[in-house]
Queue: 4 jobs
Job 1
Amino acid sequence: MGTSLAQPAPGQIQPVAPGTRTAPRLQTLALTPPLPEVKTVEVLSNGFVRAAHAIILLSGAQTTDGRATQLALLAAERTYRAAPDLLEVDVSVYRAKGYAGFGGPLPLLTLSVPRERLATVRTSVQTDQYDRIWINPQIDTPEVIAPPAKLLEKVPVFVGSRAEQLKQQLQQSLSHARGGVRGGLLFQGPSSRRQVALTFDDGPHPLYFPLVLDLLRRADVKATFFLIGRNAVAYPYFVQDLVRGGFEIANHTFHHVRLPSLSTLQIKTELSSTNTLLTQLGGQNVLYFRPPGGRYSTRVLNIARQLGLTTVFWTDDPGDFQNPGVETVEARFGKRLRPGGIILLHDNALDGLLALPDLLKVARQRGYTVTTVGALGR
């Protein structure tokens, strides 16, 4: 699209906020007997249960669907052998050449094996009856080439003329004063009830996602998940888990790119392709959109409205993606909690995961109902 090939494709390098601390290294498992193709098996706990994620790297001669499937099944079985207490084992199989971590080229195959499915997974996969496997069709996903931005996701940032900025300031002021959707934007809900919306950005991610869902189910809390299209492509069963569980799915663009600098066609593609994908996967109409980094413009808002989307921001950002420490996340959350608030967390942030039970407990103790964006103010 007229962009230098030296610039990385969106999603290949996930944006990192300035001042972000390095996340602690996760525990790893050794498989017996070992599988040479397994790069690592990471294990994580949410305080109640543990999950694991195995990453497999295949050389060019091995990158067939059959070989990828065989190794994914072996990795899942041996991971459970090493840690029988696991809630779930996720497996991602990549080409070794060009592998760049989660934000790089999509996997060749992904597999999710909840503990209760372990006994039947091999037979189900071999007879094409297993619903928690994705094999990359090697069809190019929509691409919008843009350099990754290193921007702090702290407050919404409107990009536009002085007149447009003044209009946005007025809309924000009215929204914060009265609550509710105004001009296709939602900054906070009505302040008449002690009710807040819980939202998670950037998902779905293997390893973290099952643990977040487990905590929400334990607390009997529903939330809204703003999903990245390219992530949903590779882990479609996680999207279906959300819909079956009564959670709300929403649009966070296809590649997690900052939108104001893109062309009108590129913006439409980022939003419409994600809408189509999520609707196909979950059978749920997508009604809400959150711009990555909180960066938006009049053009972005108009395109979102044309697609039937309400643009949603937040009032309470504990900064879990910066790895500030669990205590800091909890303190920030408690300080900013207010009626009609919209809480921003991320489904792959360790501090947010570990703090979540206490965040929900604090909200409950203060008399708040925690719900979805769609239910806020109903």
Note: Residues 27 and 43 are 5 Å apart (CA to CA).
Job 2
Amino acid sequence: MLKILGKAPSINVRKVLWTCAELQLPFEREDWGAGFRPTSAPEFLALNPNGMVPVIRDGDFVLWESNSIIRYLASRYGGEHLYPAEPQARARVDQWMDWQATDLNRSWSYAFLALVRQSQQHRDRSEIEASCANWAKNVGILNRQLEAAGGFVAGERFTLADIPIGLSVNRWFGTPIQARPDFPAVSAYFERLAGRPGYADYCRNGTA
């Protein structure tokens, strides 16, 4: 059986759990990370030298990096409805997954750590304001894409890209940002995701 190493509250672990729900793929999960077994342990570093969750073990195959994991699972376990085989359709999905992992993630990092995690290393008010502004700029990009695409981020149908982006939208709404801009297409999109397997357990589950 597929084994997932990583604590359930982690946003990157939740990408994998939500993907498994969409694929109806059974798994076992082990708690690793802050508050649980340390990822600095030699046995964990032997699997992922970066010391970060998630890691999967699929038989003898070991893989880390959350977006790589969910691409693998969709390709391995009949997920063409999530991750199309046709090159241009797949590239569109990859484009938005990569955008989430780079531009979008980088924009919310400082603000999230300051406002939700209450990190003492992230108390600079100007940095918080700059992060919130950049985050809003990127959510605005997503809002325009959703208006144009027809319902989901890569087009009219739910795809693998909607899992990491849906989790990021959950984080946007779960962070106490002052004067949060209104993005109607993003709000409607987040409600539209509610009918998906795994959404309640792994996305809108009270964890940002």
Note: DSSP finds eight helices and four strands in the chain.
Job 3
Amino acid sequence: MNTNIITAIINSYCRGFSNWSCYEGIPKYDAALRHHFSITGHHLHLRLDFSANGREVFVPLRYFSESGYHVFDFPVVERTLPDDQIHTIDEVSLLTIIADHLQEAYPDIHLRQALDNLSSFPCPTQIEVASVAAFNTQLLMTDISRQSEPEEWLVRDMLPIVASLGFRQQADENKLLSAIHQRCAQLLVDHPLLNSNKLTVHNVLLSFMLGQEKAMRPYHNPLHKAYYSSALIQPEGKGVVYSRYFPKENITVSIRPFDIDRDLEMVHEWFNREHAKKIWKMDWPLRELELYYRCMLPGNWSHSYIGEINGSPNYNFEVYWVVRDMLADYYDALPTDYGTHQFIAPVDPTLKFSSPSTQCMLDWVFAQPEVGKMVGEGSVESLAALMNKAHVGFRVEKVITLPHKKANLNFCYREWYWAKFPESRHLPAQTVTPTIKQTQHETISRI
């Protein structure tokens, strides 16, 4: 197996298609994967989902790059779903699987065209970089405002350096990406003049920074990481991250990150309750639900939480970064938009505590300085969800038709929430030390 070639193939594929995710841990309810992963000892994999063709591909993941230059261990394995058999594959077999998938999903693409579209991306181990100083020098010496194609400059000149420094643990990729974003933001102030094409440098750079063009997807604009809340999407530990006492109800509501070893069977029972099946639509077998969480929890776009009432689990909610979600295709999403899904388990109205539970969710999300507004897309079939959202300050923008439901697209800003619940403005969790990210958020809000 040529590991350099297969690394380039996988990284190129991930840049062009979205049917992949990280996969963490050794599963409990998937016997074939549990047996294989227990033998290899690898805890983190990249999973390529070709399940429509009855296949999955797993690659041991040594380093996940925010710039898209991942580093893998080997070998690569294919699992055929009909018989649960796992096989080691080489680069030719992987290309064949990819080509089969592309021809199935895009019948007008011929095999030769499919292979030609897989351009080469070097592994960070092959990229030589002197130091962070070299990155800073190149960033400061390049007049980004004069780049005819800023995206090409970013991918060609900067991202390989970012990935190499991150892989070698010389710098944090997110901080380097934020430095590029900050440089672009400064140029917005320094270069407000018209160019020969009568397009403002301001608009060119702003479009580059926001990356809202649908044509850029599924490869996500890495400069969005300047607005990424790791506290929400990749929380550290499994302990309580937020807690609040409500004297009227005499309850304490607390929030903690989802723990797959502790919570999987519990939420499986929740999601199979009658009131959950129609709206939540996650009444899956345990093996499928475990796959969902093992792909979500290590990812960089969404995370799940458990809400507790006086220490007892009561509700589940997910926080997701909208620019990395399909919802971004249905409105002009900003990188400061964060969405939530909420499911309250009890049916008994005296045990639901909907308002305190939802308030704590908003307190926790709005406590993060990267968040500009919260977004919801509850099913139009759920009047209770709509009323609950309206109660805390959400306003319906429009009705949208998603692949799996017709939904009320609704927004909520801090000020709208605080207008409903003025006491939340002064909670300790809302007191956040100003950071560069807050400054960037203020800039993007004004624009």
Note: Residues 130-226 form one domain.
Job 4
Amino acid sequence: MLDKILYRATEHVLTPRDTCEAESDYNGEHWKARISAIFVILASSAIGTFLPILSSKYSFIRMPPWCFFIAKYFGSGVIVATAFIHLLQPASEALGDSCLPSVWQDYSWAFGISLMTLFAMFFFELMAFHVVQMKVAASGLTEEEAEAHTHSHFGNPDLYTKKLEESEEEETSKTIEEEQHTTQANEPNPYPSHFQHAVEHQDPEHVHTPVNQKEKEQYYGQLLSVFILEFGVVFHSVFVGLSLAVAGEEFVSLYIVLVFHQMFEGLGLGTRIATTPWPKGKRATPWIMALAYTLTTPIAIAIGLGVRTSYAPGSATALITNGIFDSISSGILFYTGIVELMAHEFLYSGEFKGANGLKRMLSAYVVMCFGAGLMALLGKWA
């Protein structure tokens, strides 16, 4: 008797209360349009992602500074809105579907997973910063010098050590003027805060500061941020492509919206890739990252068309998988959008200093709000 009670209780928890949709939404219509979606979304993704990079590299297509300014902060708004509207909300719907086992419905798992991801991102950043500080301390710098020289958000301690050794070898040939700079190097850094940007740490008055290697010093910290951003966006793009390929009656509206969705999302990613200081040995990295985003959704659409009759986005497996990955991606974009793109750019960078700083800051804020609002509006259809 007890065995039967336990079995029924277990069955109630682990099996769906209703039957999830085991069939695809694909209705056989708009076949040519579905094929064209591969190439149209490939083009829109490429325009959004590659245009900022091309503009920053080649003068013949270089956008005016105000265009790049708008693209940068418009993209920041798009990323933040994507986290809230295009990731967390669908994840909540997927994991809260009534056909799933009760264990998924007894708690807001989408919000919980997103929250855990956000704190995991912050923990990784704390650990990375701690490792850099420890390695710099081991290099023999004083506490004041460590604060003055170590931090370009994360930095690369090996570059500091290498530069320090080079500086020591050159000390015997320094002029009297350079020795005066050496004295000034012992002054405390006026910007010891963890979240100050590298430009505030690159004080040319400090002889051990690798002024001539600013690109290398900033590379690792910003690269990590960009990779995290791309990771969250790419996972989302996979499910977007699959959903479009097997969509039923809503295919036409979804198709139109996703063309702009992928372009705007690519613009947000592309501007961040373009503004990252890439060393000479890593010049291919931004192109590879842009290409990865550009190809993700078209490949997912092609795969979706190949399994159009067997892939069921409403099945229990698809709902759980999609919901979990959307939740993780939302946590990543929450952290990246709010900390990296909003707090760093507006509060801790030097971009808004000077006489017209407030005007530029308010302009950037309005552009960011417009990008977030437009992306949030697209969430009505996709």
Note: The chain is about 70% helix and 0% strand.
